[in-house]
Write a structure and sequence with these properties.
94 residues
């Protein structure tokens, strides 16, 4: 599993644990908090972009399904093809 595929809660947990360890050993400076904030912001941007792409894909998918289902021209063409082919296919049986 790639690190970017885990949930946002896991990223927050990882950052909090790392900051806690740094604080435990008295190595925690304000720069580490800034880096953690920037890291979480970047992770949030990636998740937002993926969610936006997924929603756009679902919208396009449902729009295409609705368009195909409501397209009466396809049904008319299919009925016309069946009418023409029916006589050709039924002749050998009669």
């Amino acid at each position: 599993m790639v690190i970017t595929e885990i949930s946002m809660i896991h990223h927050v947990g990882i950052v909090l644990v790392l900051l806690w360890f740094l604080n435990l050993y008295n190595c925690c400076h304000s720069i580490f908090y800034l880096i953690a904030l920037i890291y979480l912001h970047q992770v949030h941007e990636i998740y937002s972009m993926r969610l936006r792409r997924r929603m756009q894909f679902e919208e396009r998918k449902s729009a295409n399904q609705r368009r195909v289902l409501t397209d009466s021209e396809t049904v008319r063409w299919l009925n016309y093809a069946v009418e023409k082919m029916w006589t050709i296919c039924i002749e050998p049986l009669v």
